[in-house]
Amino acid sequence: MIAVIDYGMGNVGSIMNMLKKVGAQAVLASTPNALEEADKIILPGVGAFDTGMEQLEKLGFVESIEKNIIINKKPILGICLGMQMLGRTSEEGKKKGLNLIPFDNIKFHFKDNLTLKVPHMGWNYVTINNQNSKLVSGITEKQRYYFVHTYHALCDRDEDILMRCEYGYTFTASVQLNNIYGTQFHPEKSHNFGMKLLLNFAKEC
Question: What's the mean pLDDT when you consider all of the chain?
Fold first, then answer.
């Protein structure tokens, strides 16, 4: 059973629909107790970094996420803002993130290409940095996903980068550290590519 955290800042309906399409059992988790009964967790997110962390803190999810992920070793998938909050900080705000993977979030900066717009919005291809990850099991062709974001992760360690993408320069599109996964793109909006990735999270991770 996958618990999709519902803290008022994610495309939970789209995620639930996509999980249903791939045959995964999922429930909306509006309280921390719902995470205790789940085997896996998805942390979605759309909006500002500080507001997302404030909502998680207000609803009591921060301690529950730490317990279930760090102590109980349940797999978690952060999506978009949900991935950004897996890190330490963001240039977007002042609050601390969940600090589950050593990275900070920085704003896109285009010194040599002023024609590129921010946010980075639309479909883009990624390259896989770690083909052994269960999240990309069976994925061999070049993948194309849907992005909407102004900030991106800057990882301390190359081994925590699962996927990379090009937009003005190379940035981190997906991360993984042990049972902790994150995608800057939206798999729930990425049609067949996103379905395969969510199926892997449900069945393989």
Answer: 95
